[in-house]
Records
---
Amino acid sequence: MQGSGNAYLGKLWSRGTHFMFEWSSCLAVFVVYFFMTIWTAGSAISGGIFVPILVSGSLLGRALGVGMVYIWQDVTETMFPSNEWRWMDPGVMAAIGSAALLGGVNRLEVASTVIVMEMVGDINLVIPILISIFISKMTADQLSKPLYKFQLEGKALPYLDSDPTIVVKKRILNMELFKICDVMSFPVITIHIEENVSRLAKMLLGNKHTGFPVVKYDKEIKSEIFYGLVTRIELYAILCSDEVYNQEVPGSVVTPTIPYDELSADYLTRISVAEERLKTYARVSENSSVFVNLDPFINISTPKVDKDFSLQRSYRIFRTLGLRHLVVIDMRNKVVGMITRQDLMQFHIQERVEKMLDKNGRESISYAITQPHAVIMHHQTIEEEDEEEMEDQIILPAITINEIDKGKADYGSDDSVDQCNNIKDPSLQSSL
């Protein structure tokens, strides 16, 4: 076979050509073509797999169709199927094979059906094609993850699933029973509304964070509280402006004027030039007495959640709104942590939960909840009239409340949990 993939499909899908290709030839080409498709999909080069998948499915389907025709000849001693057996055409089997393999790879039933039907041009095949795609999709779901999800994981791209499944000791955990502080990153690097140029330059050179919470001093509680957030690109644009670079008066506060296009850019175009200017700021000691007013550039609408907020609901908020940063605060509006996509990746949550289990020394995951408002999952029903029985039921396969003397859950001694429990203002404790 020579030519493009479209030429292959035209020959393989042709009707009435029962013996154009032998079944053995189709299988031999399928083995080579299919493994070359797999190699292309797993390589780093840019190459599509849509047409190769269709061709591979066609080869396998055509081999099956030719084999069925040979069996028909042996059983009926006639040359070709006729009447109600005319569907036993290798071209029809090739089209169904293409649809089945395409549906098994991309896991899109309706889209795959429409694509193949547009290419085949025979409305009579819509039901067989839809059934084949549905069966292949269900089979593939039981065997492995989708191809594109494997590629996302292989490239370590921070893609968030719609509903993550956290499994510990072969039990699915209920994320509603965890707090956002259990997985947050801390301590957090914060900056002030008016910050000196030298500190900003050293901060940007010393880490790769993409966002920094801005805090301001509150006279009532006599502490710094959360005010907003500024991104890394915005700080680069501010520090690289000529107004800041040419300011040499000690103690002065600069408010640069920067076009919106520079602040809203997705990435820096001249990163090497920007880093050289930052190194100059960090090296010259006079820049420590020059301040930049960040107030016009601060996003004061940045979403934030309390440190005791549900992990499951925080995950949904982050994913639904398409956030890049989610600031975690305490009840006094102090910054205690930061959530990014990396923190909400399934493997990261899994590691934090397992670490909490190991440190706490718990032998099982399921625990009894004696609080009457406990969440019940996995269809475990408890009759409402029997409140005493509710206290003795094992509710869910998750880490739950172990000590309830004060109606308070203890999730272990992990560092993140210690941070969650210890971030309390002394004045607040005295007031309570």
---
Amino acid sequence: MSRLIKMHSNEMEDIEAIYPGDIFCTFGVPCNTGDTITDGSSKIRMNKMYVPPPVMSMSIRHKDKDRKNFAKAMEKFTREDPTFSCGETIIKGMGELHLEIYSERLKREFNVENELGEPQVN
């Protein structure tokens, strides 16, 4: 792994090593939130965490013609957050603010202008 990070609220701290039970972040490793990572010598697999069903949905439309970045962003968001899901043009999450955050991330991280529809309670 090229970089290990310990999170403190909205700040990141680079760390040199991780130990059993540590919660950390890394970049460039194809994994999902909640995955168990080992050195390969043991076959430990932790139970999956309970993920409640989404309680809010909103339609989302990209404003520009960059469908590739839009699709890439939706795939990344669903991989990193088990409470976020995306259908064809409907995103689902734990509330309106949760979904608005993903709309802003889509703009900031992927340069995809988008527009949210009216929220719907599931």
---
Amino acid sequence: PFFYGLSISSSIYDNGSLIDAKVLDLTDDDFAGMMAEGIANLTALSLGASYPTLPAVPHLITAAFKNLVGVCLETEYSIPAAEAAKAYLANPEAFAVAAPAAATKAEEKSEKSESENSESEDMGMGLFGF
């Protein structure tokens, strides 16, 4: 009893090029991941080169808006979109909703740690335990 037949090698020959057999095991998620990585690289390259491409347009618009708000904050010129930033800088306490609760918790923790430190420091001994 012996067996004979074709065995599939680890490479595939197609139109003069050898392709690894692992290419056949790719899923749709693998292709989507590769495309997302390629688009991210293209976006980074176009942003670095200051060359507008379709994937880079949202980043360019966001950067331009940030610059426009910065100009509005430094000058007296105002646009409706920059009013929220101006209001926050004028009165930051008005936007602090959770800050009082967090501040009281921080104060309680600091009081507890201070009382623990004072108890551990005073052990009835002086310097070098005498």
